[in-house]
Design brief:
Blueprint: E1 6-11, E2 16-21, H1 23-29, H2 32-43, E3 57-60, E4 74-79, E5 86-91, H3 95-101, E6 106-110, E7 117-122, E8 125-130, H4 140-150, E9 156-161, H5 164-167, E10 175-177, E11 181-183, H6 188-194, E12 197-204, H7 213-229, H8 231-238, H9 245-251, H10 272-278, E13 280-284, E14 294-302, E15 310-317, H11 319-325, H12 334-347, H13 351-366, H14 372-375, H15 384-396, H16 400-405, H17 409-416, E16 424-425, E17 428-429, H18 437-445, H19 456-462, H20 468-488, H21 500-509, H22 516-536, H23 549-552, H24 562-583
Parallel strand pairs: 1-6, 7-12
Antiparallel strand pairs: 1-2, 3-4, 3-6, 4-5, 7-8, 9-10, 9-12, 10-11, 13-14, 14-15, 16-17
Helix pairs in contact: 1-2, 2-20, 2-22, 7-21, 11-13, 12-15, 18-19, 18-24, 20-22, 20-24, 22-24
């Protein structure tokens, strides 16, 4: 059975669903983000706030899903409660394969339930089940275990769920899938919570077949061979993205203690090499991936009064939580760092936003912007026990300060001050790359204000001497191609493998006739559609501002020039205006 272009529509308010064939969308937009964006535009109520019933969640997979290695991602599109505008998040694991095996290529969820529920989705449709006993459950791990036991024996399946952060509408709550993967950024977990949606279980046993078996086999072998022979993929297998810690620290590009420094003196202790040597317990892989870049560290704790008996906890780690919960907070003891990561994971929080929020809160407290009766615990660099308590306060929101912090540092700094060191870009907390102007301009102008929009951090390390206009144009060109990759949908780690010529072969084997120029044009169209949607929801590029702190701490390029950033943003504003005028 080939791709059927089926979209599953779910109404949480009415507790009903239906399925439509949307070949019209898939033929034009390929899949993934291209289709998800169009479905969002069709179903979302224009002007609805992120927590309104009119906000919708769209999950979509791509034409390569379950056919080729590294085509293992799901794209989610929604209105972000963190930025108040277009939201997009990607997750790996088994979710993409599960959606395809259930017979769908996209899922649209709208409305708000009158009570906590979870959904069981299969080829037979959707079951709406009561989640009252799951609501308020302390750990996302426990929620996953309970639901696995409830569906023991199912076929290919995924369990997406939120933690207490989503229930409490923390604006940077994530959705956990397969325990160690996440729809991490931009607050999808809070949108789940606002809809009283605790979890999705998706499973199915549908099979798929390529129409051109010999051509498919050849394309598969080529992609698989490139994946297992790639030096970069080998590094991802051995160390994961944690391999970035020491090189970025050596370059003076590792944000430390709320970016008061560009180097962490004890980076070696929390490096990928140190974790792999001393703490690595397992490697796991997303569905249909030969790389296995997911690294799990072990925390081994003795039971009281029980000699030789230990509790072993697995904690997923990669560069982003090491930076945000490690160097950003001055934590160098690896066991302390892993315990803090575990606390964040159990609560269902995005690790990056949480770490950056706590770093801002620490500096605001030390400088007197907030008082002891605000923070309720004596937070300071390296004090992991205090930070673990503060994470609990973010989840429970016992006072006005933590209610504000749960809305993100862009909001909290407007209420309490300290805007100049609040490392927020377009409303989204900072990724872990202080490499130079391309990184920060990328955070500001990217459609989702993410380092993954255009990889400016990589451009900083490869290129110097670009004018502001040239740099913006390079970032936009990269982001356009990534729209194509996100419509296929493939992992960005494999972008050097899935070059246009390879993508063309892979699609041809599945019956898609396209050339490289058409693929690149599709990416540009999707990029422009995103900009137009953001404009229709009130986004104004002239409002973008970089926090003062990035100009105070030298980067790989030395001190960043304010005029360079300003000129780049002015150029982007002109490009944005032209796109919007053309689209409307």
């Amino acid at each position: 059975m080939m791709n059927q272009n089926n979209v599953l529509y779910i109404d949480l308010e009415r507790k009903c669903f239906h399925v439509r064939n949307r070949s019209d969308l898939f033929n034009e937009w390929l899949g993934g983000v291209g289709v998800a964006l169009q479905l969002y535009k069709e179903e979302a109520v224009r002007g609805a706030t992120p927590f309104d019933p009119g906000n919708v969640i769209v999950f979509a997979i791509g034409p390569l899903t379950a056919f080729y290695p590294l085509a293992s991602k799901v794209v989610a599109v929604f209105k972000s409660p963190l930025t108040g505008n277009y939201g997009e998040s990607h997750a790996g694991g088994r979710s993409a394969t599960a959606i395809r095996s259930a017979g769908y290529e996209a899922i649209v969820i709208k409305g708000v339930s009158d009570r906590p529920i979870y959904l069981v989705i299969s080829e037979k449709g959707v079951q709406f089940r009561d989640a009252a006993t799951l609501w308020g459950m302390r750990s996302t791990y426990t929620v996953g275990r309970v639901l696995r036991e409830a569906l023991l024996g199912a076929g290919v399946r995924t369990i997406m769920r939120i933690g207490r952060a989503g229930e409490k509408l923390v604006r940077y709550a994530c959705v956990v899938t397969e325990t160690y993967r996440h729809f991490g950024r931009m607050g999808l977990g809070a949108v789940f919570g606002s809809k009283k949606l605790k979890a999705l279980i998706i499973y199915g046993k549908s099979s798929i077949r390529a129409p051109k078996i010999k051509v498919y086999r050849d394309a598969y072998d080529e992609i698989y061979g490139l994946a297992i022979k790639s030096d970069s993929m080998k590094k991802y297998h051995e160390l994961g993205t944690a391999l970035n810690v020491l090189p970025l620290n050596a370059l003076g590009a590792l944000p430390t203690k709320n970016l008061t420094s560009n180097k962490f003196e004890e980076a070696e202790r929390i490096s990928g090499e140190s974790l792999a040597s001393n703490k690595l317990g397992r490697r796991v892989a997303c569905s249909h991936c030969p790389v296995a870049c997911i690294h799990l560290a072990t925390i081994r704790e003795p039971y009281p009064d029980e000699p030789y008996f230990y509790k072993t906890t697995f904690v997923s780690y990669d560069y982003e939580p090491i930076y945000s919960l490690g160097s950003m907070l001055g934590i160098s003891n690896v066991d302390d760092l892993l315990k803090l990561m575990d606390e964040v994971e159990r609560g269902g929080l995005d690790a990056m936003s949480t770490g950056v929020a706590l770093a801002w809160a620490t500096e605001a407290y030390k400088k007197g912007f907030v008082k002891s009766n605000d923070v309720l615990v004596d937070i300071d660099w390296g004090k992991v026990d205090a930070y673990r308590v503060a994470v609990e306060f973010v989840l429970n929101q016992p006072n006005e300060f933590y209610e504000a912090l749960a809305k993100g540092i862009d909001y909290a700094s407007k209420v309490y001050g300290g805007k100049e060191f609040a490392l927020s870009f377009g409303g989204n907390e900072m990724p872990g790359y202080h490499t130079g102007p391309a990184a920060y301009i990328g955070y500001l102008i990217g459609s989702r204000h993410s380092h993954l929009d255009s990889a400016g951090y990589s451009l900083d390390q490869k290129t110097r001497g670009l004018t502001p206009d040239e740099l913006v144009d390079r970032l936009i060109k990269e982001e356009c191609w990534r729209q194509t990759l996100s419509s296929l949908v493939v992992c960005y780690f494999s972008r050097s493998i899935y070059e246009p010529s390879v993508v063309k072969k892979a699609l041809n084997a599945l019956g898609y006739e396209s050339n490289e120029e058409e693929l690149e044009a599709l990416g540009r169209r999707i990029y422009e559609e995103k900009q137009a949607l953001k404009a229709s929801e009130g986004f104004d590029p002239t409002s973008l501002r970089a926090p003062e702190r990035i100009f105070e701490t030298p980067s790989l390029h030395g001190f960043i020039d304010r005029d360079y950033i300003r000129t780049a943003l002015e150029h982007y504003s002109k490009v944005f205006k032209k796109i919007v005028e053309k689209t409307f």
